[in-house]
């Protein structure tokens, strides 16, 4: 999105925590100011937000902003609306994760933290516009946002990078032997992605289809646990953990896979499913994020239900033509509705509307 916007606009990016160092650099023509906040928590969050506000104020005086956009509703959203009030600039806030979710059993969700609840609440109430990447998240966000300020505006997939192509010998080799039915999963190995349910579902599939093989891309704290789980499920010959894979290598995996499988307990949108679709790889998964908008009901499963997920995989595995048709449908939908060329102009139109409204209010203060 930054690359698309900076090709037509002056873009300034303020990062609060990552990378873990203070520096100024350039990406795709955008100027990035990194505050290097890293994992600062508790009372240390206040100095970080104060530095962020000062940096935005200084940058605004050098080259005035037309619109501020907080990506995530907690710290970035709060900072965007606070700077907007101070500088007289409209602010957009995008919900990009679990800011409005509480899953205490796995320690996930912004609503588990009192400070995060307050920050997100302030951001959503004070923003001139709030966006979500899925209809499900729009429903969750509606009670927090003023009428007329909430819209579904998904992030788009880069269809120049993620596109169909014949897999090369390298991608074939990393995804296993010819003739296997290759399942692909791309996610951090953390509880919210629920790879335990994924492994249990594959164990069920493998009983009926011994040639199935799951390829897991991603790193995280659960790697050792999941490896043990796979062994206990007798999946050692059916699962390969590839570890972390660079973003520009992902298309080869999507193209070589037969089916993408998502097992998350929650997603705000799910770009990986769109990336797979743009490469012509169909998907099944839990009914989270954008998946209910992309997939037919028979390709969806309830959260935490290995049998339902296995059934969704099995239906496509047993009907090759249906699998081919699903890949074609996924590709058409991703490229026609969710490519950057479609989604970036949607953000630009929102920015223009807010900037024009702000200018009108400034010219006619009695009408504001």
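^ structure tokens above, recovered residues below v
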């Amino acid at each position: 999105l930054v690359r698309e916007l900076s090709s037509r606009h002056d873009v300034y990016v303020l990062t609060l925590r990552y990378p873990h160092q203070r520096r100024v650099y350039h990406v795709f023509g955008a100027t990035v100011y990194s505050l290097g906040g890293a994992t600062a928590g508790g009372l240390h969050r206040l100095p970080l937000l104060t530095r962020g506000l000062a940096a935005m104020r200084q940058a605004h005086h050098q080259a005035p902003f037309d619109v501020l956009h907080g990506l995530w509703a907690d710290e970035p959203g709060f900072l965007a609306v606070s700077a907007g009030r101070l500088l007289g600039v409209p602010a957009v806030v995008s919900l990009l994760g679990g800011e409005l979710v509480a899953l205490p059993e796995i320690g996930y969700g912004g609503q588990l933290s009192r400070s995060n609840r307050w920050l997100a609440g302030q951001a959503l109430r004070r923003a001139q516009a709030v966006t979500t990447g899925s209809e499900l998240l729009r429903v969750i966000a509606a009670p927090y946002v003023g009428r007329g300020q909430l819209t579904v505006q998904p992030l788009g997939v880069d269809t120049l990078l993620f596109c169909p192509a014949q897999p090369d010998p390298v991608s074939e080799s990393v995804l296993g032997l010819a003739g296997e039915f290759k399942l692909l999963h791309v996610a951090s190995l953390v509880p919210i992605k629920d790879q335990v349910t994924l492994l249990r579902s594959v164990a069920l599939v493998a009983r009926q289809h011994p040639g199935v093989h799951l390829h897991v891309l991603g790193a995280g704290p659960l790697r050792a646990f999941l490896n043990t789980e796979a062994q206990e499920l007798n999946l050692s010959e059916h699962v390969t953990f590839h570890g972390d894979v660079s973003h520009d290598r992902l298309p080869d995996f999507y193209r070589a896979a037969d089916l993408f499988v998502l097992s998350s307990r929650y997603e705000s949108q799910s770009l990986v499913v769109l990336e797979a679709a743009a490469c012509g790889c169909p998907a099944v998964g839990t009914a989270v994020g954008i998946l209910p908008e992309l997939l037919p009901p028979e390709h969806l499963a309830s959260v935490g239900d290995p049998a339902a997920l296995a059934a969704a995989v099995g239906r496509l595995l047993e009907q090759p033509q249906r699998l081919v048709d699903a890949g074609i449908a996924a590709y058409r939908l991703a490229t026609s509705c969710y490519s950057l060329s479609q989604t970036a102009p949607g953000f630009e139109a929102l920015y223009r509307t807010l900037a024009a409204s702000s200018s009108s209010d400034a010219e006619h203060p009695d009408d504001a």
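The longest strand covers residues 181-186.
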